[in-house]
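Worked example

This section walks through a single chain of length 86. The input is the sequence exactly as stored; nothing has been trimmed or padded.
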Amino acid sequence: MRLDKYLKVSRIIKRRTVAKEVADKGRIKLNGILAKSSSDVKFDDVLTITFGNKILEVRVLDMKDSTKKEDADKMYEILSETRVNA
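Given that input, the structure is written out below as tokens.
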């Protein structure tokens, strides 16, 4: 599944266009390597996402083409969430 679609379906990022922008600006790493919005996400991958002053690291647990709001957080596991003072 494409990275931008996974981020939208899992509701880590609410809109696919925003997920694409974030990835294309170099703010997402997939298993420690800079990722593009078209990068392929697989089960057990680790995503590191930088949002402004927050760094979120998650592990992919499930792949679905669509999901309900209450089930979206079951698609990933938060490994760490760090605030960075700028």
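What to look for: The longest strand covers residues 76-83.
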